[in-house]
Design a protein that fits this description.
The protein is mainly α. It is built from 15 helices and three strands. Helix content is 64%, strand content 3%.
Length: 353
């Protein structure tokens, strides 16, 4: 067999293997997520976490440069050499595909958090309404403790570097009850491509090749702690967006600092309100009347921020990422972010919020 066919064939083998792997989540959980991946993540975070700049961002920029250069060099001979070029592209993608899954992506096939934490999946509208009201009460209380005025929005007083450090406290508190959420060897970075991330509609991302948590430093600061906690959850090996949202929320509200608690509670409340905007607008309007105007002002701050970057680029990347998630065991695509409401409602059914 000619060498040029080896890597494309390897890609097919990988795809088939991953299709089979989805039937063995217990094997993935034991031998990869709680085994090999832990060594990979520890080494990467220990090494790259000591470097102050975002290595993953720089690597992506370099790769994009060489891709553009390669396409430019092939522009005149593409029609004559299209087959070899296609094989070459497939071969490179095959390597990229392998590295992505080996270093992190196999976590998509682990045991769902619903099962791991013995959380029920089903709930009624009444359960959701009860939880939303409890969440409003809690968010209002934290908001008032901070501002002493229910009409004033929360202005976050800490720097991004302070957030990176203080978020660890929330994870350490969470790990007391759930040791599998223990977070060590921080590797948290302000993304140097935050402006493009804003146009793509992302608050951050995990670089699977360096295990750096990249956070969009342009987002409103009251969102920054929970967004960072979300990416930290991905670093722990929880690939599902709904699970990362849930863990990020728990780590935020477990923090002793009220500003970090507020970030988590207001984050969760906004998702619940989104659910009601779909299910029953009359109930939504009733709920909004019970929320402090200062909290609404923070929500408006976020909406204003994202609206200024709302272009065809954002819509295009959302379609791409929606498809990416559906390929990787998240059948609801980008809507899976919201499914963490299911986890919250059932987790707090018999617990104090």
């Amino acid at each position: 067999m000619k060498r040029k066919y080896i890597l494309p064939l390897f890609l097919i083998i990988q795809i088939v293997a991953l299709k089979l792997l989805c039937f063995f989540p217990e094997v993935v959980e034991r031998f990869y997520s709680n085994g090999l991946y832990q060594y990979i993540a520890t080494i990467m975070r220990f090494f790259f976490g000591k470097i102050p700049i975002s290595v993953g961002d720089i690597c992506y920029l370099i790769l994009i440069f060489f891709l553009i250069k390669w396409i430019w060099n092939k522009r005149r001979t593409w029609k004559l050499e299209w087959k070899n070029n296609l094989l070459q592209m497939t071969g490179v993608f095959s390597i990229f595909y392998f590295c992505f899954h080996f270093f992190w992506g196999i976590n998509y096939y682990r045991i769902p958090l619903f099962e791991k934490m013995a959380i029920s999946r089903a709930y009624t509208d009444a359960d959701l309404l009860n939880f939303t009201r409890r969440l409003i009460t809690k968010t209002n209380a934290i908001h008032f403790q901070i501002t002493k005025n229910d009409t004033i929005k929360v202005i976050f007083p800490y720097t991004k570097e302070e957030v990176f450090k203080t978020n660890l406290d929330g994870y350490h508190s969470l790990a007391i009850d759930y040791p599998f959420f223990e977070y060590q060897n921080p590797s948290l970075k302000k993304s140097i491509v935050s402006l493009p991330l804003s146009y793509m509609g992302f608050g951050g991302y995990l670089n699977p090749f360096t295990n750096e948590a990249q956070v969009n430093y342009l987002i409103p600061m009251y969102n920054f702690p929970t967004t960072t906690c979300h990416e930290m959850a991905h670093q722990l090996g929880y690939a599902s967006e709904s699970e990362a949202n849930f863990i990020g929320f728990l780590a935020s509200i477990k923090n002793k600092n009220n500003y970090y608690k507020y970030s988590g509670y207001s984050f969760a409340l906004r998702y619940c309100l989104h659910y009601w905007s779909i299910r029953d607008e009359n109930i939504l309007n009733q709920l909004i009347k019970t929320i402090h105007p200062g909290i609404i002002a923070n929500y408006n701050e976020s909406e204003k921020f994202w609206n200024q970057y709302d272009t065809f680029i954002d819509k295009g990347f959302r379609l791409f990422y929606d498809r990416f998630l559906k390929i990787n065991q998240q059948s609801e695509g980008i809507e899976s972010y919201s499914r963490f409401v299911d986890l919250m409602v059932n987790f707090y059914r018999d617990k104090k919020l």
